[in-house]
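Notebook p. 47: complex prediction with zinc ion.
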Amino acid sequence: MKYAEFPLKKTVNEGRVYEDSLSVEHFPRLKEAVHSVDSPIRFRIQGETNPLGQKEVKGNVAVDLSMICQRCLEPFQTKFDLPIHWIPVKDESEHDLIGDDEALLLVEGDEINLLELLEDEVLLTLPLVPKHDLNEDCDGKDYLEKLKPQEDKKQPFAELAELLKK
Ligand SMILES: [Zn+2]
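Predicted complex, structure tokens below:
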């Protein structure tokens, strides 16, 4: 299966289902964006016709990856399992007919690069400032806690700490 030339039109028209698991080598931008990709990228793509008669694509994409915590600068792992919902349209004029802007997928021709689209879905979900969850061990969290009672002293990192909270 050449996912870079994915037969989107046939998939929605014929209600095809694709399920696969690919190595990160197919997703260079994702590899670049994170500390490490710790699992294959798994996905399921299903073409269907919704009750309004619109052709759409549903499914999910899942991956485990590690990012660098911006508080303590240690890597931490996150598991993503993102729903996919695309309504393919040929041009902007079809927007009005649909209403669900988030799902619109502008497509020229009958094929899409599925790899890039799946990669986009994951990249758009990555946090701008990755951080450990508050209930996880994070040295940076301890550091920020220790800063608190010393507010009358000079705080060279206070501004940084403020930035990291956002
Ligand atoms: Zn941390």
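Notes: The first strand starts at residue 6 and ends at 7. The two ends are 43 Å apart (CA to CA).
Next step: compare against the earlier run before touching the bench.
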